Amino acid sequence: MVANAEKSTQKQHPSGDKRFKALDITMKRNQYRQDALIEILHKAQEAFGYLEEDVLLYIARGLKLPLSRVYGVATFYHLFSLKPSGAHSCVVCLGTACYVKGSGEVLAALEKKACIHQGETTPDGQMSLMTARCIGACGIAPAVVFDGEVAGKVSAEQALERIEKWLMANG
Ligand code: FES
């Protein structure tokens, strides 16, 4: 039923991962309509198990949407999972609105506490720490997404409290 798909891979993902081909088919079927974003994210999550930045970028390019918009939608809906390798995930928004409200300090505190840098996972696999440019929650800046749940007006202290139990889970 996907006989024509072979011919339609004009922008095949360099990894050669066949799941991107499935994503191409879904986007094509939806005529690359931007309002099909949620449906496409659904398909992507089905295919990948979770949504990683590479996948979000691929979708953003396909639908000609800014990555921040795709990221915002993917992090806002709890049905989508951005979970990378850690058992728990923490995404600190470094977009302008959040940054001016102190998200840089929140990130620094988290990095210090977990002894990792943004984009890394603790050696015990308990927590992955990531950053985003804008998750679409500027009104409650600074925003941090803990295990897919958006928290607003997060202080460094509150953020440390949230991750403390994760880091102690196997200690
Ligand atoms: S800048 Fe952080 S939510 Fe928009």
Automatic annotation (TrEMBL):
Cofactor(s) needed: [2Fe-2S] cluster
Iron-sulfur among keywords: yes
Domain of life per record: Bacteria
GO MF entries: 2 iron, 2 sulfur cluster binding; metal ion binding; oxidoreductase activity
Binding positions ([2Fe-2S] cluster): C93, C98, C134, C138
Name this protein carries in UniProt: Diaphorase subunit of the bidirectional hydrogenase
CDD domains with a match to the protein in the record: TRX_Fd_NuoE
Pfam (any one): 2Fe-2S_thioredx
Natural source organism: Microseira wollei NIES-4236
InterPro entries recorded: NADP_DH_HndA-like, NuoE-like, NuoE_dom, NuoE_N, Thioredoxin-like_sf
Similarity-based family: Belongs to the complex I 24 kDa subunit family.
The entry's keywords: 2Fe-2S, Iron, Iron-sulfur, Metal-binding
Upper classification of the organism: Bacteria, Bacillati, Cyanobacteriota, Cyanophyceae, Oscillatoriophycideae
Keyword hit for Cell inner membrane: no
Cofactor binding note: Binds 1 [2Fe-2S] cluster.
